[in-house]
Amino acid sequence: MKIECSKQKLQKAVLIAERATSHNLSLPVLKNLILEVKKNNLVIKSTNLEIGLEVELPAKVLEEGMTSCNPTTLSNFLTNLKDEDKITVELQNNNLLIKTSTYNTVIKSEEYEDFPLIPKISTTNKLKLKNTDLVYGLKSVIYAAAVSDIKPEISSVYIYQNNNELIFVATDSFRLAEKKLTISNQNKDVDFRLIIPLKNAAEIIKVFEGEEGELELCSDSNQLSITSVGIHLTSRLIDGIYPDYRQIMPKTSTSTITLSKDDLGQVLKMANIFSGKFNQIKLDVDAAKEQIIIYSASSDIGESTATIKAKIEGNDFSAHYNARYILESFQSIPALNLLIGMTEPNRPLLIQGTENKSFSYIIMPVNR
């Protein structure tokens, strides 16, 4: 193999593909990158058996071929290669020879025969959307997913299509985040449903964040394939049924609060200092005085009480919540003001933005 290509494009491709490498004692080849030159492209492949990546970049192909190398060595070399644009990469004496105007470098090649195939999915279950929409939808809910793998279905992000909406959901059973995105020109007859493992969803965000254009999602019962310009990613899916979370979504509220997100955020951050290791606060709603009182206390540190003015409709209310859980939802609400709905002290609290109801966040109260 022998090619001429852009140093910047090669460096970016290596950094992306490196994300899917893995130190697997039973399959050592997974720690390396596969470099395959064919037609007019260089394809860099990697997999950790959970996700697989193929990153394609244009190159002037002088000779086709394939090899494997250590990603850290190659990445470090390219990162420290300053003031270079065009480079030549060739396989010589079973090693990778990289030439620039300044350097003549040899990187040891590795065996690649045991590298597993990255699956190709052939199905009509397809969906097209903007790259930025996929990343935005995942980032809007991923923090609410369970970290433990004891229940794989909730240690994941659930994505499904409902008419012209693509809905992202994550829950750890203590709180739940739902984000709805409007999508156009979709096949409404396709039953598009995915349960993506939490770690894989996090890698999808890192791979596609900052990329532009459109991508295609394609899935069967076990695998998801995401294809954009120059990047093909596959991910294992959870083979199960996601809980019917809509049963616990509040339909009505006996108390409704409208207040500034910044004001509530500032008070919660202060209250969290005194909330102890469980981040517990007490929230009291005084409808007559149109104010909410937030109290937190720790026997080791001290206590804090704060009062916020708010527009309140309905009854007085009092319950305990995890302050960190409430604060984490703010990253998904671009609105300046929040709408908080409450029913009973033992029922979920609903948080939305006032201008846009596409994001809904419910949080269960905690015991004192």
From TrEMBL:
GO cellular component: cytoplasm; DNA polymerase III complex
Pfam families the UniProt entry points to: DNA_pol3_beta, DNA_pol3_beta_2, DNA_pol3_beta_3
InterPro entries, sorted: DNA_clamp_sf (IPR046938), DNA_polIII_beta (IPR001001), DNA_polIII_beta_C (IPR022635), DNA_polIII_beta_cen (IPR022637), DNA_polIII_beta_N (IPR022634)
CDD domains in the cross-refs: beta_clamp
SMART domains: POL3Bc
Keywords: Cytoplasm, DNA replication, DNA-binding, DNA-directed DNA polymerase, Nucleotidyltransferase, Transferase
Function: Confers DNA tethering and processivity to DNA polymerases and other proteins. Acts as a clamp, forming a ring around DNA (a reaction catalyzed by the clamp-loading complex) which diffuses in an ATP-independent manner freely and bidirectionally along dsDNA. Initially characterized for its ability to contact the catalytic subunit of DNA polymerase III (Pol III), a complex, multichain enzyme responsible for most of the replicative synthesis in bacteria; Pol III exhibits 3'-5' exonuclease proofreading activity.
Family the UniProt entry places it in: Belongs to the beta sliding clamp family.
UniProt name for this protein: Beta sliding clamp
Organism: Candidatus Vogelbacteria bacterium RIFOXYD1_FULL_46_19
